[in-house]
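Aim 2, interim progress. The first record below pairs a target sequence with its structure tokens.
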Amino acid sequence: AVCNNPWTLFSRTPRYPLCYVAFFIAACVLDFQRAIALVVLTSLAVVSKSYDLLKKYKGDSIKQCFKPAGRWFNSNLKWIKWVFIILVVGLLVVWLAVDTSKRPDQLISFGGVCMFIVLVFLLSAHRTEVSWRPVFWGLGLQFCMGLFIIRTDPGFIAFNWLGKQIFLDYTKAGSSFVFGNLITDIFAFQALPIVVFFSSVMSVLYFLGIMQWLILKISWVMQITLGTSPTETLSVAGNIFVGQTEAPLLIRPYLKDMTKSEIHAVMTGGFATIAGSVMGAFISFGIDASSLLSASVMAAPCALAIAKLSYPETEESQFKSKKNIKVACGDEKNILEAASGGASASIGLVANIAVNLIAFLAILDFVNASLRWLGGMVGYPTVTFQMICSYVFMPVAFMMGIPYDESFTVAELIGTKLFLNEFLAYEKLSHLKDNRLSGLDEVINGERQWLSVRSEIISTYALCGFANFSSLGIVIGGLSAICPPKKRVVSDLVLRALFTGTCVSLVNACIAGESF
């Protein structure tokens, strides 16, 4: 079944809209302040539906009215483009001059953005073929979203509200019934049930068509601005909500005809973001929910931008318009089957998280024991994997805007995330946050016990992504199973996509450092 509009289910019976209007009016009359979130969501839905209806019934006539303006625009496109570029550069220079005078640390973060872009360009597969439109538009969208979310009250309130809707407290109702008091003492019974619940909710949203509609709208915005193909844009937009092997399922029928650059962008989007179900587990650690959510959203346009810089398009894409791109709904017959199927589907993910944590924590302890033994041979018995990472990635952490004395600790987190996985890195970050909240001394016996709030936020953005070596097998196996003819292409490009996805997360952190 093809589902591009969730409102079809809502509008089949005329009384449903009338009932909702009555409910909406009652909620606003009784307490408008309490109903603000409902007003915003309803307004967005009305605007979107109005646009769809206007496009469907009056789209052709509107196009005819604007044809003279379109011809004038195309004939003067060259100088309009230069005026726009000069205006944007001028505003950026003014912003840097005015804003960084109040916050000098932001200039370092801006330098970090420039450094990572230059690095990716130097390592690009086809430097002479780079199209700068997706690069600048992607970074511009990401920067604007960062300013809106972090600097403005509406953006901060909106994402803070969305972060609280992960329903951690509601999950306890189910997990406490099954596991009892064990949920307060054992990680598996405390954090992993949120994955089950979120997977079930996502399955219901897919059944209703809401998730497909949202993904299509986000991909449409990125497609018309960045100029990327509908297929790769749709997959990257899907990565905001689902995992690196689930998002390509949205474009499964089209994968076999996609170019190498498009396949690379699909993989980069998977490495640069995290799945919504896993996000819930991180929030249960104590990681800031609004930062995690905004990091995943901001990473989508940046992933397309950096992907097109790392592996530019050199082939002719077969997908020029989104009209022939359809997103399939699930096969469930009703909403209860969707909820049950989503919960059942999460069993493999929960087991995968648990066994990976066991394995990687054990491996990390073994590696540290080996390094201490080898280091002891030459008079350095305290050397560990974390210590090596702290020196190797310290310049990276510093260029993100982390203060020098905290950059070694953040570098450990980056190394842990890249070489092991993001779960271990976020677990360590949550431990540092708990130490700060509990009032521990900043440094004990020469070891830093906590980070500043700004460094915590930047680190949250830097760690938000599946870009680690343990994910390579998942991506190769997942995409090869979905589209066997592209197995060779996936294998050839996966390491480049891993590097690109890592750079996306680091650029994301730099943008957060500029905005915070």
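The second target in this work package is listed in the same format:
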Amino acid sequence: MAFTSSASLYLGIDVGTGSARAGIFDEHGKLLKSASSPLQIWKEGNCIEQSSTDIWLAVCAATRAACQLANVSGEDISSVGFAATCSLVAVGEDDSPVTVSWSGDARRNVIVWMDHRAVEQAERINSYNSPVLQYAGGALSPEMQPPKLLWVKENLNESWAVAFRWMDLSDWLTYRATGDDTRSLCTTVCKWTYLGHAHMQQMSMKNTKAMDACGWDDVFWQEIGLGDLVEGHYAKIGRSVAFPGHPLGAGLTGTAAQELGLCEGTPVGASLIDAHAGGIGVIESVPSSNIKSQEEENMEALCHRMVLVCGTSTCHMAVAQNKVFIPGVWGPFWSAMVPELWLTEGGQSATGALLDHLVENHVVAPLLANRAASQNISLYELLNRTLESMALEIKAPFVASLSKDVHVLPDFHGNRSPVADPSAKGMISGLTLDSSEKQLAVLYLSTLQSIAYGTRHIVEHCNAHGLKIDTLLACGGLSKNSLYIQEHADIIGFPVILPRERESVLLGAAILGAVSAKNYNTLQDAMKALNAPGQVFYPSQDPKVKKYHDAKYRIFRALYEQQVSFRSMISDALG
């Protein structure tokens, strides 16, 4: 099939940790249908791996299924956009997978974003105090790509020798789709230490083009032991970069189009990391009643908003017109989400994953899961209802107060922001021998609240260092949990706005395609046209609720301080 410009539907593809999803949107940003296909994943200790071959097959399956569900053909799709986790893909000169696994299994050529094998390498890289680190909150996380690359070089010599391209997953997807190896400013700036602002005087969204990569720091790569990547003008990690949404190559190649069930030549936009696509898909979803003045019509309006992309982990995305350096928070990243604005990115490495871990491993979880299934509701909705019943039964002043004896530090996978401590651990205070359904409900509530306290810590920290956040927008799987969102509003004290379309990451990806097809002049124009507000959760006006959460927040902060103290005491004892 050949592409025709009369097509009017936008396809967004999102590759998450557990599945690949495809969504089809109309010209108003309304989701028609979506479909998903599961992904294989290997977990061995700190090593978490996937297969790019498996991922592409899942992308094709999800795309074909979404088109079938929407009753549309490939000729109806006007553009394609990709978003994905910031996982690391290794391929050879012939684009075949190159193993990144101790097992030597060639299928396993993707180091998943949450893989923490490179903690020691990250610490070593950070010890050099390179100037590029100031644009990553002062320190690289083991979840970023340079530490992972260094780990492969030091541990898998053969793989290092034969790898021809190292790519962020979303960039690999656009490369697989178009044959164009241009990298996104989003991935390179956020995860590879690329200094996007090197292009500030050269490019603007209204006159976008692929640019020779001039933002790499040779000294940094040589200093950390990866000087061989400088060869060939960084050919292995990115010789050309572009704004998100920039049209790549000649659109879909014939091979990719056939595999996806679409038309050859369909425009494809430069990609975004999944969380950043969520930001694009939601940040303009503000009700008109929340617009305060004419000033709100311009870029300044965006700078008062923070987007929470809540899934397995949570990313906290905020933009500013000027660069703001915030210790322990990633960025400032120029044009990494909204072109020509500086992105600040906080995060919590385990949120949805933490709730799943604590709830699903509880002794009563199988019983509750069966009960929830019989009522055709989620396990978490059942727990929410249990908490409401408990509050009524004991005449609690409000549901949140049920957690008064249980306090949680949610750093079960380290602390990404704002203390940037990958060695931080989770803590629970207040456990008893009780293992009942009610005990699980309280543990769930306490954990949910602890995640919100973590977000409050990030927001307060960012505002103390120069941001002006006063409104939150939320998307992702956890945003479908009304208790989760209401607790965030109550704990942080800001309204939390949900978008009309809950699949904001898919919409963000679709927006990239719409821009690449020249349906909009800029990404901002597309955001304004395709974003739309939904429900708004306002903070409780009960002063007792605020007083309660202020007290719990002080305990939350103290838990980490105690952990650091305990760590020091044990270190002294063993030293």
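Residues 363 and 435 are 7 Å apart (CA to CA). This observation will shape the mutagenesis plan for the next reporting period.
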